[in-house]
Amino acid sequence: MSRTENQTPAAPTWKRWLRRIGVAAVGVTTGYLLASVTVAVMLSALLVSPRPKRRRHLESMRLRDYLWAKRIPYRETQFTSYDGTKLTGWFLERGWWRPTIVGLHGVTGNRTSLIRFGVILYTTGFNVFLYDGRAHGHSGGRFVTYGYHEVRDVSAALDHLAQKFRLRDRRFGLVGISMGAAIALQVAARDPRIAAVWAESPFSSLQKISREYIADLLPVPSTALAPTTWLAELIANYRGNFSVADVNPLAVADKITCPVQLVHGLADDFVRPHHSQAIFEALVNTKEKNLWLIERATHGRCYRAAVEEHHVRLPDFFHRHLGR
Fold first, then answer.
1. Of 253 and 56, the one with more pLDDT
2. Is the CB of residue 122 less than 8 Å from the CB of residue 314?
3. What are the extents of the domains in the chain?
4. Is 104 helix (H, G, I), strand (E, B) or coil?
5. Which fold has domain 53-205+247-322?
6. Least C-beta-crowded within 10 Å: which of 114, 129, 149, 171?
């Protein structure tokens, strides 16, 4: 038998190309899946465990000296939320017979983020409670859930304040910025003790703002981002023991009956003004609602863009709805 008769016939050229294309497709798909998982894990970490800021402000004595210089007495107090998480804050005490306003900071911030609002409200006659949200500042907790667990933290704070400081007036105001504003709106939808809400730069839903953020961060077609976004939300849900889809101030806006003042910067390119506009339109059962749009104000910087107006509008809003 000749040598050529023992050789296997060569595969047709088109079959060889099909095999090569198949191997390449598997490689590309595997690479895409690995990249998607890696990016999703990173994005979920950014969502539920963002890097805290302003820690040095909290630990510095300068801020405490500032409060004492303004003759604003404050008491550090700690309370325990429904799941055992311990949360810490400052109570700027005006008197047990006075109305009380609770300040809610944004993500990565802490109680010092709202100190300007606290000083304005204290000097115009209110008790003020500023505290570090879970996983922020000196408070406990590992993950941020943007209202899913924080709503019940606020209710626990109200219980603590009413009991420890023997408050006569057990109606409360809430003032929040960014995440804090979104939390305030969600609290107002379920806790009847909330008598007024000042919400600056809130997002309308966590899912919507997360997807907008990812689209800005990764400028690729939305169809290509969809699997990564879905996986990031799934991982965040598991890590934070919550549901991204359920953090939705817009969905509960029609349950809010107390007066609401929405404030948003027209130059905010992080949480864009359409979030507040959508919430404003959905507030169909409130006793009063207002939307204040501020020129040149970026995210969480409305106060800096309109200092004098804040000194008038902020206390006036709460005086009208909580009394003097």
1. 253
2. no
3. 13-48+206-242, 53-205+247-322
4. strand
5. Rossmann fold (3.40.50)
6. 171
pLDDT in tens, 295-315: 999 999 999 999 999 999 999
Helices 222-240 and 206-217: angle between axes, nearest 10 degrees: 130
Q: Which of 134, 127, 123, 37 is nearest to 90 (CA)?
A: 127
Q: With bands split at pLDDT 50, 70 and 90, how would you rate the model's confidence at 47?
A: confident
Identify whether the C-beta of residue 118 lies closer than 8 Å to the C-beta of residue 318. Answer: no
The torsion angle over the Cα atoms of residues 229, 234, 237 and 243, rounded to 10 degrees, is 80
Q: What is the pTM of this model?
A: 0.88
pLDDT-derived band at 15, boundaries 50, 70, 90: low
For 37, residues 6+ apart whose C-beta sits below 8 A from its C-beta are 231
| Rounded average pLDDT over 196-215 | 94
CB 294 within 8 A of CB 261: no
Return the percentage of the chain with pLDDT > 90, whole number: 68
Helix residue spans in the chain (DSSP H): 3-6, 13-48, 55-59, 61-69, 115-123, 150-164, 179-188, 206-217, 222-240, 249-252, 274-282, 302-305, 307-322
Q: Is the dihedral of CA 306, 311, 314, 320 positive or negative?
A: negative
Lookup result for tokens 């606290």: 118
Nearest to 275 by CA among 265, 285, 284, 288: 265
**Tokens describing residue 42:** 């990173």
Angle (nearest 5°) at CA 176 between 241 and 75: 95
Q: Find, among 36, 51, 54, 46, the residue nearest to 111 by Cα.
A: 54
Cα–Cα dist 56/274, whole Å: 33
Query: Is residue 155 over pLDDT 80?
Result: yes
Amino acid identity at 7 = Q
Question: If pLDDT is split at 50, 70 and 90, which confidence band does 34 have?
Answer: low
Confirm if 296 and 266 have CB atoms less than 8 A apart.
yes
